[in-house]
Design brief:
single chain; globular; 26% helix; 4 strands; four-stranded mixed β-sheet; alpha+beta
């Protein structure tokens, strides 16, 4: 249940990719960290559900973690900011912070075709 991204560099330097990797047509496992039922948490979940319905219908699992009830899950995944979306599968793992209100950026991060977002 983590939201920290691993960039694979031993020196801690961030790696920036200008093009998304080719989208994987398999099952997506997404983990959304929220705090209670606050407006940003609700907006993030609503935006994620809409995005999944439109772009991942039948190919996704959403796990919602309320950090007020399961703080240990957030610490295991190095999540310090909510809302935070973690792409668990397919790898590599990706973390998207915020209420997911920009569908093009979220699709890009999830390596899905942006098209008519």
């Amino acid at each position: 249940m983590s939201h920290a991204s691993s960039n694979g560099n031993s020196n801690g330097a961030a790696r920036i990719r200008t093009k998304p990797k080719k989208a994987v047509r398999g099952q997506y496992h997404l983990r959304l960290f929220v705090v209670g039922h606050g407006p940003n948490s609700k907006q993030a979940l609503d935006n994620l559900l809409c995005l999944c319905q439109k772009h991942l219908e039948g190919r996704h699992t959403i796990e919602t973690v309320d950090v007020t009830k399961d703080f240990a899950a957030a610490t295991r995944d190095n999540i310090l900011i909510t809302p935070a979306l973690v792409l668990v599968k397919p790898g590599p793992r990706v973390v998207v912070l915020g209420n997911l209100s920009d569908p093009k950026k979220v699709l890009f991060a999830l390596r899905l075709p942006v098209g008519d977002a």
